Sequence to fold (300 residues):
Amino acid sequence: MKPVNHKAWWLVLPVLVLVAFSALIPLMTVVNYSFQDTFGNNQFFWAGTVWYEQVLNSERFWNALGRSFAFSTIILAIEIPLGVFIALHMPRKGIGVAFCLVLMSLPLLIPWNVVGTIWQVFGRVDIGLLGGALAAIGVDYNYVQDPVDAWATLIIMDVWHWTSLVVLLAYAGLAAIPEDYYRAANIDGASGWAVFRYIQLPKIMHVLTIAVLLRFMDSFMIYTEPFVVTGGGPGNSTTFLSIDLVQIAIGQFDLGPAAAMSIIYFFIILTFSWVFYAVMTRDPDAGQQVVENSEGEAGK
Fold:
């Protein structure tokens, strides 16, 4: 039996130490605050699960959570199909490939706070190009006062900023498909829809799962852009769970409820991430089996 060399763990040790200081230690600090209360002077008193009960019984928490889920659902419903559509129509050869890849990468290079500032100015009715153009054609648009306009602005902003990520992932998956599949489909006389349904989609399914996972996590934890653009308003219409958490922790300085909400927030994201990971690794050969079983049907 070949001996196992454990020396590689020494190379991983710096990463583990970095993760401990940047993630585990702050997490345990938040857990500590979520079970205790303080009256200042660095004196803490055991509070048990009272903060968790307060958060879970709070209508404010459930409303913010519902807004976050609604935003993520809308974002996924738009960006995943749109990203796949754009990737399917991008060139596979020639100078156009580099041009399209660079063009798709540009929105991802812009910092989040800059994106929020751009769309805050862009959507203003008095000086913004979008707001001014809509006002000029008679459209009653004002994201500062109208919740529907505020949601539309945030959704369009996120689609503009992050659809490129889905495009690049889907394009990478499509580029990895061997040409033999397309030749076989061409010989069988398969239609474009049949090629997509039985060849391209199964082959990029795992890539799309990663895209869904990343976009869900990013959209569900979004904070900077909506905070810069709307500040959670008008009213509380765009106060997502992340913004509400910051308001409780920093604005109200209620560390106990904020810590409990952070842990609940963390477990929600962890649960959904685990579900996506379970789906992604459930059957690694599922895509290949679908392709093999449907090669005969592709020509129909």
Summary: The chain has a mean pLDDT of 87.
